[in-house]
Amino acid sequence: MNILQHDYPDDIHIFVLDNAPSYLKQGDNALSVQHLSKAPTLPRNPWFGVPVPDKTEDGKLQYNPDGTVLKKKAALVGAKLLDGTPQSLYFKPGHPREGIFKGMVQILMERGIDVSHLKAECPTGFPKRQDSLMEQHCENRGFKVIYLPRFHCELNPIEQCWGYAKRVYREYPRSKTYPDLEQNVLRALESIPLEIIRK
Predict the structure, then answer these.
(1) Is the torsion defined by CA of 160, 164, 169, 171 positive or negative?
(2) How far is CA 52 from the centre of its chain?
(3) What's the pTM value of the predicted model, to 2 decimals?
(4) Residues 6+ apart with CB under 8 A from 132
(5) Which residue, among 182, 83, 123, has the nearest Cα to 190 in the 3D structure?
(6) Nearest-5° Cα angle at 76, 16 to 93
(7) What GO MF terms are annotated (predicted)?
(8) What is the phi/psi pair of residue 16, to 5°?
(9) What is the pLDDT of residue 63?
């Protein structure tokens, strides 16, 4: 990112990523329907959050005496309405229940969904996916992210490169030693034309 911003400061940068778990990982306090209660939290237990690993200021994990990771409660990150407007999951300052978790009913009603006939079921319109840590990091730096559809390797430029290099590698004599193997692999990778990469 630093290189792109330095060498191409006036361009729009878009990262095209596959569905690798590392790219899709969400924060420990990401919105999850499994963690949400139907109603606002009770006055005797007003603060609602999810357990996340407790870290020191320099980012190191803290441990309990028994060796398990020390946990602390963290507020859930906000959601976004369908038009992209941020939606807080907690009542805002000035509200009689300021700082209290709203509960699913209130959150869905703010989205214009009638939940009077439902028990604790989430209809369509409720957020099913939060931005991944990768998306959040890129967005904070001014980059865009596009995820490729799952199981469509033909759309991934790197797969076209691997396929071309493998075909070229198979045309070489069989590698009998490690130096031969390394040389043939490098030759095959260097043979990939720009047209294949840019397809």
Answers:
(1) positive
(2) 17
(3) 0.46
(4) 23, 24, 25, 26
(5) 182
(6) 120
(7) nucleic acid binding
(8) -105, 115
(9) 92
> Which stretch of 2-16, 41-55, 80-94, 120-134 has the lowest confidence by average pLDDT?
120-134
- The partner residues of 101 in beta bridges, in order of sequence, read 90
Looking at 32-46, 62-76, 105-119, which range is the least confident one?
32-46
Domain spans in the chain, listed from the N-terminal domain onward:
27-127, 156-198
Q: What contacts 112, CB < 8 A, 6 or more positions away?
A: 125
CB 72 within 8 Å of CB 51: yes
Q: Is the pLDDT of residue 123 over 60?
A: no
Name 39's Cβ contacts closer than 8 Å, sequence gap at least 6: 103, 105
Dist CA 69 CA 74 (whole Å): 15
- The answer to whether residues 54 and 47 touch, using CB atoms and an 8 Å cutoff, is no
